[in-house]
């Protein structure tokens, strides 16, 4: 069955939007005066009556149409198209453009490790001479 002819699962859409809002079933239930079990049943239902849908939509801060037409793919497109990183070292959190030469940092780290080993050997030699 293609996604174009597949009926929307309203309960699943409610669940996704609730989760995106960082809201638990209990919190949604308290906000609209239902039990947590009722919310669980609604989220498991493929359809829901308009009155309940409007109440839930208000509690979630979205429109009933937003719940009916919710789509993960559309949401991801919106996020990808509106993502803005204020960090100059990243471009969309993927393309890293360091302002330094990574090899210089590796050499610097290696030199510090060698110096630490030399200091440790010197310290141990002094301890051995002190005995």
List the helices and strands and how they pair.
Layout: H1 10-20, H2 25-32, H3 36-44, H4 50-60, H5 64-68, H6 72-82, E1 90-91, E2 95-96, H7 102-130
Antiparallel strand pairs: 1-2
Helix pairs in contact: 1-3, 2-3
Name the average pLDDT.
Answer: 80
Sheet with most strands: strand arrangement: 1-2
CATH-derived topology of the largest domain: 434 Repressor (Amino-terminal Domain)
Major pleated sheet: 2 strands, antiparallel
Globally, the shape reads: elongated
In total, the number of strands is 2
Structure class: mainly alpha
H/E element string? HHHHHHEEH
The percentage of residues in β strands lies in: under 5%
Q: Considering the protein shown, what is the CATH homologous superfamily of the largest domain?
A: lambda repressor-like DNA-binding domains
Reading off the top of the CATH hierarchy, the class of the largest domain is best stated as Mainly Alpha
- Using the CA coordinates, give the radius of gyration: 29 Å
- Examine the secondary-structure arrangement and name the CATH architecture of the largest domain: Orthogonal Bundle
Separation of the first and last Cα atoms: 84 Å
pLDDT < 50 stretches = none
Count of separate DSSP helical elements: 7
Give the helix level as a range of percent.
55-70%
* Domain module count: 2
């Amino acid at each position: 069955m293609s996604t174009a002819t597949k009926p929307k699962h309203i309960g699943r859409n409610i669940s996704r939007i609730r989760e995106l809002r960082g809201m638990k079933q209990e919190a949604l239930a308290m906000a609209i005066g239902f039990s947590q079990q009722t919310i669980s049943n609604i989220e498991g239902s493929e359809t829901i009556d308009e009155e309940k849908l409007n109440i839930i939509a208000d509690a979630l801060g979205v429109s009933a149409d937003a719940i009916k037409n919710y789509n993960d793919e559309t949401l991801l497109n919106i996020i990808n198209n509106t993502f803005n990183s204020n960090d100059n070292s990243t471009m969309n959190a993927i393309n890293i453009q360091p302002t330094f030469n990574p090899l210089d940092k590796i050499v610097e780290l290696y030199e510090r490790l060698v110096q630490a080993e030399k200091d440790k050997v010197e310290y141990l030699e002094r301890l051995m001479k002190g005995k």
